[in-house]
Amino acid sequence: MARKPETDAATGVATTGHEWDGIRELDNPMPSWWLYTFYASIAFALIWMVFYPALPFVRGLLGNTARGDLAAVMATEQAKAAPMLARLRAATPEAISADPELRAYALAGGRIAFANSCAGCHGAGGQGAPGGFPSLADDDWLYGGSFEDIRTTIRHGVRNGEDAEARGTAMPAFLQAGLNMAQISDLADHVLSLASTGPANPAGAALFTDNCAACHGDRGEGNRAVGAPRLNDRIWLYGGDKPSVMRSIAYSRAGVMPAWEGRLDAAVINMLTVYVHALGGGEQ
């Protein structure tokens, strides 16, 4: 409620004229220390605007920027890391793994590099993902799980069309290569029987011998030289039910992985190699 300003009898201070439930607001001046602090803040802000970037398109007299500060910090950190990176660059993954100091550094750096470059497809823990992204945490390898095998795959990638040494050969789309859907169904039965998840099918076994065994092996044991996966276990890249297997046979599958050589420093590739090898399925 507003009323006419008057002097408070108890304090001798003028009121503002505002009252609520009998309580009147005194019109006391702000404390001097508060006013001086307020004025000093305004002066500091004006000085800051002159020397540092505070307005759009104004760099300030000192030319300081957060991006410039970051560049300086990064340069300092890179200088600190340079000796260790040089050692990692010069060593083989096997030697890195055998050296406790290098191994600890490689695992820490490899985990970060994996999160930045690999986890989007292979999962944060290397567990893989449906749709042709293999697990890196088991011992089922398409191209081998030794240090050199892993490093070669990281360097050159798979079927990427950009690196002449990329891994992978193309699997035929058998529906276009002469088989009909009835034959593909028989063939899928046999493939599933290799992993003990489907019925025996003699016609499918004959088709497998004629069309698939050259790459996948007579018993579906796979062939790492060409990246042909094992078919006699229960690890499937694109699904292990019959429709999924038929889809793979009829239309083929062709996963792609980029070549990281040229994108990543050689030291980072070695760190990634050691990290992936350590995920759980690495081989000697």
UniProtKB/TrEMBL annotation:
Heme c 2 binds at residues 171, 212, 215-216. Keywords: Cell inner membrane, Cell membrane, Electron transport, Heme, Hydrogen ion transport, Ion transport, Iron, Membrane, Metal-binding, Oxidoreductase, Repeat, Respiratory chain, Transmembrane, Transmembrane helix, Transport. This is Cbb3-type cytochrome c oxidase subunit. Residues 105-195, 199-280 form the Cytochrome c domain. One of its GO terms (molecular function) is oxidoreductase activity. Component of the cbb3-type cytochrome c oxidase. Its cofactor is heme c. InterPro entries: CcoP_N, CcoP_N_sf, Cyt_c-like_dom, Cyt_c-like_dom_sf, Cyt_C_IC, Cyt_c_oxidase_cbb3_su3, Cytochrome_c_Oxidase_Subunit. PANTHER family: CBB3-TYPE CYTOCHROME C OXIDASE SUBUNIT FIXP. Heme c 1 binds at residues 118, 121-122, 257.
